[in-house]
Design a protein that fits this description.
The chain has 254 residues and is α+β, with helices and mostly antiparallel strands. Helix content is 18%, strand content 27%. It has 5 helices and 9 strands; from the N terminus they run βββββααββαββαα. It has helices at residues 70-79, 86-91, 119-132, 197-205, 247-253, and strands at 16-23, 25-26, 40-41, 43-52, 57-60, 95-104, 112-118, 147-158, 161-173. The strands form 2 sheets. Strands 1, 4, 5, 6, 7, 8 and 9 form a 7-stranded antiparallel sheet that branches. A two-stranded antiparallel sheet has the order 2-3. A hairpin with a 7-residue loop joins strand 6 and strand 7 (112-118). The protein is globular. It starts with 15 loop residues before the first strand and ends with a helix.
Length: 254
């Protein structure tokens, strides 16, 4: 991610209760998966490949912005190969992550941070609470009439890994922020660093010996968008996810 100078990440360190405000930003990408450019929204979904190349680095999957991905293509070929290494095939699968603008109310500085978290550990739970809870909770991210999220994290483990997973969300009334907050929240579309097909292919082969210019992250983001500061209240229907039934699927989602 190309994060503005001085912006920090929100990283819960231990189990317990956290109070956070999720704030909206104005979407600039023409290919946002949920809403149109110019609308106000609260999250950016990305897909990430981990452990790529000799240095075991992470790269955003180009399919996040509707482009072809050489890593996904390589994985698709391996899936059809009965002799392929199952662990390798699984490791090449992109993992779904979400980005949010948040203020940690338990932090005395209370400045806007970026929260990157697995959809499995938070987003799925939030979506379920919104769909099955009070209708007014759907506007939790509105700068006026929004809600503070009281989130309870519990520590869980899988193999040698431990992680914090959402176990409860309560929605509490909060003071309004006002439209000026949109000048402070981070554009979650523009911080994405997405390599081209050719550049990412070099990463896979381990032959990237020269500097790569990643300044043109999402070409569509440079197009002008119409002003639309009215938040979208309803959360769009998303694809139905299969329940986590086995250890392999759970590991893929962390």
């Amino acid at each position: 991610y190309s994060v503005p100078e001085g912006v920090e990440f929100f990283r819960p360190q231990k189990p317990g209760i956290y109070h956070i405000d999720i704030l909206p930003y104005k979407v600039t990408a023409q290919n946002h998966p949920q809403v149109s450019a110019g609308e106000i929204w609260f999250e950016r979904t990305v897909f990430v490949h981990f452990g790529i190349g000799d240095e075991q680095l992470a790269y955003i999957c180009p399919k996040t912005i509707g482009k072809k991905c050489p890593i996904c293509e390589q994985r698709a070929k391996l899936v059809k190969d009965p002799n392929a290494d199952e662990e390798l095939v699984r490791s090449l699968k992109p993992k779904e992550r979400q980005l949010f603008n948040v203020i940690d109310l338990d932090d005395k500085e209370q400045k806007i941070k970026i929260w990157e978290v697995s959809n499995f550990l938070f987003g799925e739970f939030l979506e379920e609470e919104i769909r099955n809870g009070d209708e007014e909770n759907a506007s939790f991210f509105f700068y006026e009439g929004g809600k503070t999220l009281k989130i309870r994290f519990k520590q869980e483990s899988f193999g040698d890994n431990t992680f914090l997973k959402t176990h409860r969300i309560d929605f509490e009334d909060r003071e309004d922020y006002g439209p000026d907050i949109l000048k402070e929240t981070i554009d979650l579309d523009k911080i994405l660093i997405v390599y081209s097909y050719e550049e990412l292919e070099k990463k896979i082969l381990g032959v990237d010996n020269e500097e790569v210019d990643v300044s043109s992250i999402v070409e569509e983001n440079e197009k002008p968008v119409e002003e639309n500061e009215k938040p979208t209240k309803e959360i769009p229907q998303r694809r139905r996810r299969k329940p986590v039934l086995d250890k392999e699927n759970q590991e893929d989602e962390l």
